[in-house]
Model the fold of this input.
Amino acid sequence: MKIAFGCDHAGFEIKEKLINYIKSIGNEVIDCGTDVSISCDYPDFALKVAQNIVSKKADKGILICGTGIGMSIAANKIKGIRAAVCWSKETATLISQHNNANIMCAGARFASVEDICSWIKIFIETKFEERHLKRINKISLIEQQS
Done:
């Protein structure tokens, strides 16, 4: 699976550890930045990851910022993206099973590298349950009406 990865300055310190972990469990990574630890704008990296998914260059995405919230807000502005903040193994499961999220967002300031790695594995490996498709399709209808 190809995973697009992006972070801002808050996620930069753990970026390489997360990318190495994603690769170690058999995935390719498209590094969408940041490449510096100085303050930067998270919407820029959310957009890059989202564009990789919409263009089908990547299957799923991971976004890391201080809380995960800003990244999810920015990524969800892109049509076809379902970005969800993850904070536990349970939410990692449910964002895939119920929401068919294509981007997992997490907060570097509120979780350990080990926790985020476990959530990434669950997010990547958990399959969407088709019984939720009707609800997911309604999201596309909302996008068309706005």
Notes: The chain has six helices and five strands.
